[in-house]
Specification:
two-stranded antiparallel sheet; 14 helices; 5% strand; globular
């Protein structure tokens, strides 16, 4: 208003210098404000530097970024390879044992369990491994694949899923076995139909012709067909050294299961509040009624379409258009993809009866005691009822009761909000745990929920509970 009056006064005969001073002040304020980037929901559409410069700059920054993330992991966890005796996944990979989250100096798990959330927060003794786990480079985000998956896909198809700016962070012994087995609800008599192979466009027809019907076979083909994605595409702001055809659904959900590839949720702004993601298994989606860790999508068709239209591009349809979004046709393509996914079964659990409880003639004493803890004192079944061990609802654990919000490697450690109840069937084959990979073992998970739910389990009860979970 001052600038406007100055200009009009100058027109009416005020001294030129007065008008100039007022105008200069107004312009100066405007320029100062213009130099501060406003908060925005959108990613920049036009790149501000050429691809060769981006490649050089981010490649040079990569060692320091990865060192910072690995230092964080070492600070939080015992990352040693320590397998549980006699416990394996479907194809023989050992299951890691033991609590891996490191405690603050001078504190025991019993000490923490005796404190209230407010006392833990006040004393600053919430274990760092129970805080949200940042993406390997949270400020950048995007899909990052374990190296063994990158190598396998490049060997089979020639497609290179390497990012020039980032590597995967967690050691492979904390990830699901690779390749994972495939069990079909329609043909349980066949057992693992993967034949020990990673299913790709090179071998899917050989593996599944004569087992699937034509719709299901076409759905599987689409699930292993690469489509453009935020980091893997043909544009100058991609994160692959060469222009890229994109990623497939099964690049994260390998063989309809998971390789624990990580990403950031596309639903939240600003960047530091976006949650890191662990890729959930697609096993048993036929009995689930919510999809996405927080999105609460109601059908697997909704989830499949959402992933292609939005999640692949950080929830930004403007960028999706630029990078080559694949618009699936709902009545055929989405339907076919969902029909195949609905065939993916949980791994066999020979110690469970038809009600999803332990057969007393097959289970050990420790496993039976653990089942009692699960359904009674531990209160686990209130969210994870048998037989599939999910209530198909969302729950807010309110873990922020235990710590002050603060930045960790570009991630604001604060409230998570409601998270869907993941099915626990086959849980020993789906490490790491929680929606953002922060819990590396089942023992870590038991300690976390013992504090969050305040059920005060004894050490023997915790061990028995883990023994039961390994039976599911």
């Amino acid at each position: 208003m001052t600038g406007f009056r100055g200009i009009n006064a100058w027109r009416g005969g005020w001294p030129l210098v007065a008008g100039a001073v007022l105008l200069t002040g107004a312009v100066g304020c405007f320029l100062a404000r213009a130099q501060e980037p406003p908060a925005t929901s959108y990613a920049p559409v036009v790149a501000k530097e050429g691809f060769p410069d981006t490649l050089a700059r981010m490649s040079a920054a990569k060692p320091a970024i990865m060192r910072r993330q690995l230092d964080l992991l070492q600070e939080r966890y015992d990352l040693s390879d320590r397998a549980a005796a006699g416990v394996a996944m479907s194809r023989g990979m050992a299951v890691q044992e033991g609590v891996r989250v490191k405690l603050p100096a001078g504190v025991t798990w019993q000490d923490l369990a005796a404190l209230t959330p407010a006392q833990i927060k006040e004393r600053g003794v919430w274990p760092k491994g129970f805080l949200p786990l940042p993406h390997p480079n949270h400020a950048e985000g995007g899909m990052v694949f374990p190296q063994h998956h990158i190598d396998e896909i490049k060997g089979q198809t020639g497609i290179d899923l390497t990012r020039f700016d980032l590597d995967y962070d967690l050691p492979s012994h904390f990830l699901p076995e690779y390749p994972p087995a495939i069990f079909l609800t329609t043909r349980p008599d066949l057992g693992d139909v993967s034949r020990g192979k990673v299913v790709t466009i090179d071998n899917f027809f050989e593996l599944f012709n004569g087992i699937l019907n034509p719709k299901q076979l076409e759905g599987l083909r689409l699930l292993i067909t690469p489509f453009p994605q935020q980091q893997f595409n043909q544009t100058e702001d991609r994160r692959s050294a060469r222009p890229h055809r994109g990623v497939t659904c099964f690049d994260c959900h390998v063989n309809g299961h998971s390789n624990s590839a990580t990403h950031l949720v596309g639903d939240i702004r600003p960047q530091e509040f976006r949650h890191g993601l662990d890729t959930p298994s697609l096993r048993g989606v036929n009995v689930q009624r919510l999809f996405g860790s927080q999105r609460a999508l109601k059908t697997i068709e909704d989830f499949t379409e959402f992933e292609q239209r939005a999640a692949y591009f950080d929830g930004d349809p403007v960028i999706a258009t630029k990078k080559g979004v694949n618009i699936l046709e709902r009545g055929s393509q989405v339907h076919f993809m969902a029909e195949f996914q609905a065939l993916l079964d949980f791994p066999p659990a020979p110690k469970l009866d038809v009600f999803g409880k332990l057969d007393e003639g097959l289970a050990s004493a420790a496993e039976l005691r653990g089942q009692e803890v699960f359904f009674v004192k531990g209160r686990c079944a209130e969210c994870h009822p048998a037989p599939y061990y999910t209530d198909n609802m969302m729950h807010n654990l309110r873990a922020e009761r235990f710590f002050e919000p603060h930045m960790v490697n570009g991630r604001m450690a604060s409230a998570d909000g409601p998270i869907k109840t993941f099915a626990l069937r086959g849980i020993k084959e789906s490490p790491p745990y929680l929606h953002d990979r922060r819990l590396l073992t089942l023992e870590d998970t038991v300690e976390f929920f013992n504090l969050v739910t305040d059920v005060k389990l004894s050490e023997p009860e915790k061990q028995d509970l883990v023994a039961f979970l390994r039976c599911l």
